[in-house]
Design brief:
Layout lengths: L9 E6 L6 H14 L4 E5 L5 H9 L5 H25 L3 E5 L2 H7 L7 H7 L8 E6 L2 H11 L4 H4 L3 H18 L4 E5 L5 H17 L7
Parallel strand pairs: 1-3, 1-4, 2-3, 4-5
Helix pairs in contact: 1-9, 2-3, 4-8, 6-8
Bound molecules: adenosine-5'-diphosphate and thymidine-5'-diphosphate.
Length: 213
């Protein structure tokens, strides 16, 4: 069930194509917020919990709706056991990947986004959903330099398909009132990207009801 009462912390998600710089930007943002004296908690999906670990292990062999359900199950478990408890103590929670990753990546297996929206209907809505975008040629280069982690990333021209699907899914979520912050990081460093996000968080941080320092 989604939490009915707003929790005192702040919930920030970072999504975008594989290799674009999510993990680097999330780590840098976490460090910046910590430097500023905020209590920040960095996490990711699939999570390090039992379902997330299983989902990561099974991504090579399991496909379609079954894999989609595993990722969604991990998301509910992650919310219940890590994200909400951290937010309840006033922390700024940053997760590297969330709903948008499911909406996009499961389309590689032919899963209808409506199915993904359905099984994720009860997840918590982030306060800010950051989506990193970039020129697909640049994403391809970063992914190749970083190394490919799984079958999705080994598909020919996967970065082009991911970038296209992320743009489409982002437009749909924005139109549905989702709090999206889209950031083109083709030509900016992870430090500059994290700085932009920190600036965008200044307003929501000022409204935190529990001190986070
Ligand atoms: N803004 C950026 N500009 C240039 N290179 C970047 C940027 N962000 C990340 N990188 C580099 O791109 C590669 C992939 O970054 P990573 O954070 O692992 O991506 P993701 O988590 O999105 O898969 C890494 O080698 C990283 O150093
Ligand atoms: C959260 C989530 C991740 N995934 C996939 C996308 C990634 O290929 C994989 C996570 O792998 P990971 O190595 O963490 O991603 P990255 O290459 O960006 O560092 O899980 C889904 O397919 N659906 C989801 O809902």
């Amino acid at each position: 069930m989604p939490s009915s009462d707003p929790l005192p912390g702040l919930f920030v998600t970072i999504d975008g194509p594989s290799g674009i710089g999510k993990s680097t930007t999330a780590r840098t943002l976490h460090a910046l917020l910590t430097q500023d004296g905020h209590n920040s908690h960095l996490t990711c999906e699939p999570s390090g919990g039992p379902i997330g670990t299983l989902a990561r292990e099974l991504t090579e062999q399991v496909t379609g709706p079954a894999l989609a359900c595993l990722y969604a199950a991990d998301r509910y478990h992650h919310l219940e056991n890590e994200i909400r408890p951290a937010m309840a103590t006033g922390k700024i929670v940053i997760t590297d990947r969330y709903l948008l990753s499911g909406l996009v990546m499961q389309q590689f297996d032919g899963v209808d986004p409506a199915f993904i929206r359905g099984i994720n209907a009860d997840i918590d809505r982030p306060d800010v959903a950051v989506v990193l975008d970039a020129d697909p040629h640049v994403i391809t280069g970063r992914l190749a330099a970083r190394g490919k982690h799984n079958r999705f990333q080994r598909i020919t021209a996967s970065s082009f398909l991911e970038a296209h699907l992320y743009r489409k899914a982002t437009e749909e979520l924005t139109a549905a009132g989702y709090p999206v912050l889209r950031l083109d990081c083709t030509q900016i460093s992870p430090e500059q990207a994290a700085d932009h996000i920190r600036d965008a968080l200044a307003g929501p941080i000022a409204t935190l009801s529990v001190g986070t320092s």
